Amino acid sequence: MHDVLQEMGMEIIRKCYPNSRLWQNEIHDFIKKNKNLEAIEAIVSTHVDEDMTNENTGFNADVFEDMKNLRLLDICSDFTSCKPTTLPDELRWLRWDEYPFSCLPVANLRKLYGLIMIGGEIEHLLMGDKVMPYLKLIDLRDSFSVRKLPDFSSTPNVEKLIFDLSSRNTLL
Predict the structure, then answer these.
(1) Residue 77, SS3?
(2) Helix intervals (H) in the chain
């Protein structure tokens, strides 16, 4: 029943707001074939698509450059073939599980509300001075590579910082 309702919801969104939200099976082809990406407001890809896991088919580092209205980015692993050069200013929610790069080199995340990066290879979270007045949630569970956390004085509204390495004991 849940799958049927989800499909119905996705179909309604597709008709009312064409190309504003991309789901797992549409992401790769749509982005590769379209030049006008401004309409995209959300990308949700909850598992690794085998077509996107090698350098020949993964997205370039500047894939998000033309997505000016992207507010929700929920992806995992090797979505891009190299670390992103930019993320949209309008981004409110960023979840990138198994992030494969050492840092998140983005300049302006002022409107970000939630940052979730579970697992992955990140060593330095948010390098440089980042003023993020709306950020309330940072979730870095199972991020064993983290070496340095940012200065949180520029994120005065953080309510929850999750940095749980409890599953590490099961790996040893």
Answers:
(1) coil
(2) 2-16, 24-33, 168-171
* pTM tops 0.70: yes
Query: Are 106 and 83 spatial neighbours (Cβ–Cβ below 8 Å)?
Result: no
Instruction: Tell me how far apart the alpha carbons of residues 21 and 109 are, in angstroms, rounded to a whole number.
Output: 20
Residue 167 burial (10 A CB sphere; 0-12, 13-18, 19+): exposed
DSSP letter at 21 equals E
What is the amino acid identity at position 65? E
Scanning 17-164, the segments in alpha helix (DSSP H) are 24-33
Q: Is 3 helix (H, G, I), strand (E, B) or coil?
A: helix
Which amino acid would we find at residue 62?
D
Kindly list the distances between the CA atom of residue 130 and the CA atoms of 59, 70, 109, 141, in Å, as whole numbers in the listed order. Answer: 25, 19, 7, 21
For the CA atoms of 165, 167, 146, 94, the dihedral, rounded to the nearest 10 degrees, stands at: -90
Q: With beta carbons less than 8 A apart as the criterion, state whether 144 and 123 touch.
A: no
So what's the pLDDT on residue 95? 94
pLDDT tens digits along 92-135: 999 999 999 988 866 678 899 999 999 989 888 765 667 788 99
Q: How far apart are CA 99 and CA 50, in angstroms?
A: 16
